[in-house]
Amino acid sequence: MVPLTIGLSVLVAGMQTAWVRTGEQRYYQMTKFWGKLLLVNFAMGVVTGIVQEFQFGMNWNAYSRFVGDVFGAPLAMEGLVAFFVESTFLGLWIFGWDRLPKKVHLACAWAFSLATIASAYFILAANSWMQHPVGAEIVDGRPTLNSIWAVLTNNTALAAIPHTIAGAFSVAAAFLVGIAAWHLWRKRKTDDEHRAVWRSSIRLGGWTGIVAFAVLAITGDFQGKLMFEQQPMKMASAEALCHTEQPASFSIIAIGDVTSENCEDVKTFNVPALLSFLAHNDFSTEVKGVEDLVTEYQARYGTNYPDDPQLGELAGKPIDYVPNLPVTYWGFRIMIGFGAISAGTGLLALWLTRKNRIPDTKWFPRLALLSIATPFIGNSAGWIFTEMGRQPFVVVPNPSGVDGVWMFTAQAVSRISTGEVWTSLIALTSLYAVLGVVEVFLIRKYVRGGIDGVIPPEKTDNEGKDELAFAY
After folding, report:
1. Cβ neighbours of residue 259 closer than 8 Å, sequence gap 6 or more
2. Nearest-CA neighbor of 271 among 292, 244, 250?
3. What SS3 state is found at 253?
4. Beta bridge mates, 136
5. Distance separating alpha carbons of residues 165 and 209, to the nearest angstrom
6. pLDDT for 43-70, tens place per residue?
7. Residue 31 CB neighbours (<10 A)
8. Does the pLDDT of residue 201 top 80, yes or no?
9. Do the Cβ atoms of 438 and 44 come closer than 8 Å?
């Protein structure tokens, strides 16, 4: 829900800008239609964030105590932006259509959309600190913030932010392409008065998706180079690279027992030396394998967990420094593959709608509708890879940072019973399942209603006002 809100809010603000500048009716109709879907998604997306607040205190209280002095600043900034700027200007945008001057109302749309990006920036800065802690020092056994600027300009964050925002635009682009393609096809043989709206929407979505994928590729390459330096085990597990190679090959696909965590069971088809280039911009760099990295991690961070009763059954047990190889390997490829499919659908949509053409085949609207899911899957797979690939750490050690600023996931969890976890999980999942049904119902209702469902047509030429006048 969040990526769709981020990407769609900016696109809706752009649609409204086009309307204010040109006065063309199609841009006004686009703003109203896609804005309605944005509001439904935003309303549901807001409540999904609440569960994370409970998770911090209930399931991850040791983690919250450990990172609290650092996370307080960026999360407070996010709260101010999200709950004050976003909500204020979104409210003004919703209720200001017939009350505010055009340009003031447009400014509210841009303020809201940019606030969503700013909110994401602070959240990603906090998350990136977990991936690469900076701007902190150890005081009484806990990291204490000594430079908020270092946290906000963390190179890991500066790479993650454009990558994540581009992923959000890919979600919004596929959303536009899928729905607009369906509307174009549905009335392909009739005189549809709103055809210009759907053509403009599908082409905007197509171009946005292609540009977003290009940005994803560039920023992803930069992230890969940082991963090589900061989290070498994550890179090795993403490639199922068992042994150190120089040069290192890039794995295209794997066959064998990918459910096994023993990387020797996975056989891959490779592109020679490409992984070395992705890691360090040359074709000869050494990339360390899983087995060699395990030895290094054991020498640096220990072979066994502390003999602490708080660790439960893991107390004193050997530390497994290898992430779940099937999840990291396939998660990385699902992220890339589904992102490419989404961009490819956008490119196809541009081709089929060139020179005022209207797609008239059944397979295209079906493909476009199914493709709405692809960037969602790609985004989710990317986050699963990012978070699971850093295990067994919840705060990953900075190889060149302050000693001690790291934490094992086993140390971070609350000491609560399995029954308590299941109870909260079932309750929250049930609640969000109901909310999900509500959102799907509302989205489906407004999508099927089209422009007339958002802007009811006038009964006669003499009744009411035209839509532009009605808006103000």
Report:
1. 326
2. 250
3. strand
4. 145
5. 12
6. 887 777 777 777 888 888 889 889 888 9
7. 26
8. yes
9. yes
